[in-house]
Amino acid sequence: MKSTYITHNFTPVFDKYSRILMLGTMPSPRSREVGFYYGHPRNRFWKVISDICRESLPNTTEDKITLALSHHIAVWDVLAGCDICGADDSSIRNPKANDLDIILSHADIRAIFTTGTKAYQLYQKYCYPKTGIKAAMLPSTSPANCRVSYEELKTAYSAILKYL
Q1: Which end of the chain is more exposed for a tag (fewer CB within 10 A), N or C?
Q2: Tens digit of pLDDT for each residue in 107-132?
Q3: CA distance 55 to 22
C-alpha cells in the first residue's frame, strides 16, 4: 500500500474546564470518513470512556463531545499531518506535530494521556520538548490491538479518573 500525506482536519475537543488531554496519533481512514475521533465502529475508545465515566455510550459526534467535555476531557491527536499507509501507525513518515499550546494555554490540563505506543513515542519526540508535561501511555483502543482485553482497557483508562 502506498503512503499518502494526510493532514489532520478535526478541531480539538476542549474547553476551559478540560483537565486531561487524550492524544491519539492521527485519525484513521474510517475516522476521517465519519469526520470525528475514534470513528471506526470497532474502536473501543468511546465505550471505555463512557463506561469509566458511568455514562451511556454516545452514538453521535455531538454526544461524544458532550461526554468528553462534561467529564473535563480534551481530545486531540499528536500529529497535524504525516505520510501514512492507511491506518498503520508504524508506516508514519514526515510527521508534523500539532501545536498543543492551542489547548494548554486555554485549559487547566493536569495530565496528558496517549492512546497507544506510537502516539506516546511521537509525543515524546515532538511535543514533550515544547510542553514539558510528561504523558502517560495507555493501550490503544484500536481494533488492531485485540491482544488487550476490554477489561484491561477499562482498568488502564481508569487512571484518568483521579484527574477529573
Answers
A1: N
A2: 999 999 999 999 999 999 999 999 99
A3: 18
